[in-house]
Amino acid sequence: MPVPSEILSPQPEQAEWTHDRSEFVLGACRTIEASISAHQRLLGEETTVRLIAHVAEVLVNAFRRGQKLLLFGNGGSAADAQHIAAEFVGRFVLERAALPASALSVNTSCVTAIGNDYGFDHVFARQIEAFGKPGDVAVGISTSGNSPNVLLGLAKAREMGMTAVALAGASGGKMKNAADYCICVPSEETPRIQECHTLIGHVIAELVERAMVHGSSRIS
Fold first, then answer.
1. Is 195 within the bounds of a domain?
2. pTM, whole model, 2 decimals?
3. Is 47 exposed, middle or buried (0-12, 13-18, 19+ CB in 10 A)?
4. Could you tell me if residue 179 is inside a domain?
5. Which positions ≥6 away from 85 have C-beta within 8 Å?
6. Do residues 152 and 51 both lie within one domain?
7. Which of 47, 85, 144, 155 has the fewest Cβ atoms surrounding its Cβ within 10 A?
């Protein structure tokens, strides 16, 4: 993508910038282009897009039955889980009733108690055992698809009769066989996968919200 010369050239008020500025700008452009490319690949995978829409439909049906959504992941994926939960409990775009969604990384006392007593691999499974009910939806997020505590969380969810959804990278990792639905982002780069996970969360939130507000029986 061509970069305008006025961007590459230092402005009078930024005289401290030297030739290094153009390297930063070009680096920023390359990163943005890489992110756009990952999003375009995701858009081009019809099967994956249809799966995203189906997961939104699963959530609509669960919320209408009075069920809840539990999300979990580590690090940036924990932040993604919290972000997605907030879109449901608050609102995304439309005014509507709050929807029950929780991220299992937010209670540090629970996470550290379980981690200390049972091991870090069990921090999500134990909470799912405590809070999950048959018919609820669990979403495990892992860029590699191989995080042990996320895998155990999904396994516990399925054992309890919940619908298990995974968000992963290109291969899906072990989560591909651990979830009822595994949404795989067509990238091997962690930052690009995370950026697509954010987009997927927004897409699902918007589809669910529209269906809940407008009362349609299907959204896909």
1. yes
2. 0.88
3. exposed
4. yes
5. 69, 71, 101, 102, 103
6. yes
7. 47
